[in-house]
Amino acid sequence: MASSASPAQGSQTPSEKGLYERWRRTFSSMTGAGLTPEEQEAEVEGRNHRTCEQWKAQMMEYSPAVTFMLKHLELSGCPVKPSNIECGRCDWTRSGGFMPEGKIVLCQGRIFNKSHMEHTLTHELVHMYDQCKFKVDWLNLRHHACSEIRANSLGGDCKWAREIQRGFLSISKQHQECVRRRAVLSVKGNPACPDEAAAERAVNEVWESCFSDTRPFDEIY
């Protein structure tokens, strides 16, 4: 009796079958064909994680702003290893975060290109620098506001092109307005902050001294 397998399948060597299986998995991950919703989600997260790790390594090696911050953190006694910067899942509202115990999280799937990652990572490294140098009390709204002002100003978050992408356009003092708006938004999310008015008040109280403090940069990046 003739075999029910197709000639191509029946004549495959073990290495050819392995190659075909890898191709099938790659095709499925690209198209979602043949995968359950859970498998599709896992494939997407896997790709996001690999991309995030690849870009992170490139930033730590080649980005002028990131390597500058890493150098000054080391000079300040707080060296940063790749393991201190993690790629992980976050909610849709953020692209990164800093944890006072010395960890930075880059939100895989929420970082859209290398420039976005550079700004995000530099922002979080400014927080890490402030923690290292000034022992920030993150539940103190004035402390939090100061670090947010500095991170938003120095990290590249408020560059003109980024603001245009967000739908904000200001003819004068665009940078300052962006820094203030984003600092208030961050402080508002502090569990010790009762309302937006308190966040605005904290930002206003420290604005002059913290906006003018560009350490470790000589000027706004």
From TrEMBL:
It is found in: Mitochondrion inner membrane. Has a dual role in the assembly of mitochondrial ATPase. Keywords: Hydrolase, Membrane, Metal-binding, Metalloprotease, Mitochondrion, Mitochondrion inner membrane, Protease. The keyword Endoplasmic reticulum does not apply. Its main location: mitochondrion. It holds the Pfam family Peptidase_M76. It is an enzyme of class 3 (hydrolase). Residues 1-15 have a biased composition (Polar residues). The keyword Hydrolase applies. One of its GO terms (molecular function) is metalloendopeptidase activity. GO terms for biological process: mitochondrial protein processing; mitochondrial proton-transporting ATP synthase complex assembly. Belongs to the peptidase M76 family. GO terms for cellular component: mitochondrial inner membrane. It comes from Heliocybe sulcata. It is a peripheral membrane protein. Its EC number is 3.4.24.-. This is Mitochondrial inner membrane protease ATP23. Residues 1-21 are annotated as: Disordered.
